[in-house]
Write a sequence for this structure.
């Protein structure tokens, strides 16, 4: 009788196993937009940025990218528009140059799991996926050309936008 | 001298062993843990009726019928599950009762089915960067109807007669999903009768019941001494 009771107690303790409570870092959740920088040569090559300071519109915190040719930027999940200020050579007051990029998109929330909840996927607008504007500081526009590689921002495994300068 | 059936010391008389009377009937009751939970847990309302019927000395047909309304508040999802379930199967009593006690230690199996709805009340969007300091909770209130699931359970438990004809039982269940009709863009994170789902189709459950035994008929049998059984075998051979 006692043996069986303890057996049951042991089996009952299995109910507290909760292996699916943590959202694994490898799980794909809300993706960031991936931008790659290229030169403006006839056959463009990857071009690294120097002290590229990216600030979201209305934000004080910023991202600083240096010596990389690929950057990742988060998009707003509560709005269909996200605007960033991109300052090239931000550490050098003489050569620094600020441009603005504004993304337009629609959103779709997709269920991931109990532990991760939902992720937002972004779909760039077909007619106006983004708009580039110069800052009002008379420094010219440093982004010379750009293209959309894929307007479906669903994973971070591919490049979404290419910028040439 | 060979050891008699019950291990009681006996004189070598054929009629000295009293015949054992086994009562057969229906037992019906309710799961009191679910009833109690309906009072102390504001996110839960449930009722489970249980019943079993004795087929043979050790085999019982067992059924459970229940209804649950449960709201789950997890970190990233908040949802309400409402539905009914039915389970049917067998229990096998592996316990040898002494004297005229009528207790059970059993192992059993059930096939369970449930029909339910899930309402996704609200959810959170998972973001690895929290750059924009957004309030990422979306209030939705979307109801998914017409969902269903079927599963198999293995049950281990015991039932003891505490006062005349009143039984208290406890069992632990191990469940495996056989079919699961999920909602679009969500999941069955809780199924009435099956309980919380985990990755891999397994689940567990508990059952605490109080039942009343309604006797229908009696069967008596004379336990045969081993010595007599051996003699019978020799005669037939």
């Amino acid at each position: 009788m006692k043996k069986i009771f303890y057996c049951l107690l042991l089996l009952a303790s299995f109910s507290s196993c909760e292996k699916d409570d943590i959202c694994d870092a490898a799980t794909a959740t809300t993706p960031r937009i991936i931008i790659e920088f290229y030169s403006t040569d006839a056959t463009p090559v990857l071009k690294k940025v120097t002290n590229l300071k990216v600030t979201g519109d209305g934000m004080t915190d910023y991202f600083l990218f240096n010596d990389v040719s690929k950057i990742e930027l988060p998009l707003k999940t509560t709005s269909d528009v996200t605007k960033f200020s991109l300052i090239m050579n931000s550490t050098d007051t003489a050569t620094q140059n600020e441009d603005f990029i504004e993304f337009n998109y629609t959103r779709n929330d997709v269920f991931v799991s109990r532990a991760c909840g939902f992720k937002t996927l972004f779909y760039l607008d077909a007619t106006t996926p983004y708009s580039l504007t110069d800052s009002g500081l008379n420094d010219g526009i440093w982004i010379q050309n750009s293209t959309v590689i894929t307007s479906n921002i669903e994973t971070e495994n591919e490049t979404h936008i290419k910028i040439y300068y | 001298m060979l050891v008699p059936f019950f291990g009681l010391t006996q004189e070598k008389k054929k009629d000295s062993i009293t015949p054992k009377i086994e009562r057969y009937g229906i037992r019906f009751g309710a799961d009191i843990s679910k009833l109690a939970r309906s009072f102390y847990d504001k996110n839960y309302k449930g009722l489970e009726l249980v019943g079993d019927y004795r087929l043979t000395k050790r085999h019982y047909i067992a059924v459970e019928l229940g209804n649950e309304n449960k709201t789950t508040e997890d970190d990233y999802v908040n949802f309400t599950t409402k539905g009914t379930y039915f389970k049917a199967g067998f229990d096998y009593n592996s316990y040898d009762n002494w004297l005229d006690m009528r207790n059970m230690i059993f192992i059993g199996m059930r096939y369970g089915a449930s029909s339910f709805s899930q309402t996704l009340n609200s959810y959170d969007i998972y973001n690895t960067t929290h750059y924009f300091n957004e309030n990422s909770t979306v209030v939705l209130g979307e109801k998914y109807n017409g969902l269903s699931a079927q599963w198999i359970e293995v049950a281990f438990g015991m039932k003891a007669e505490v006062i005349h004809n009143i039984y208290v039982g406890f069992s632990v269940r191990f469940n495996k999903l056989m079919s699961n009709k999920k909602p679009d863009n969500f999941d069955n994170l809780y199924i009435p009768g099956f309980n919380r789902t985990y990755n891999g189709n397994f689940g567990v459950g508990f059952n605490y019941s109080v039942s009343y035994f309604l006797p229908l008929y009696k069967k008596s049998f004379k336990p045969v001494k081993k010595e007599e059984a051996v003699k019978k075998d020799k005669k037939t051979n």
User: Anything to note?
Assistant: Chain B touches chain A through 32 residues (CB under 8 Å). Confidence is low (pLDDT under 50) at residues 1-12 of chain B. The first helix of chain B runs from residue 32 to 40.
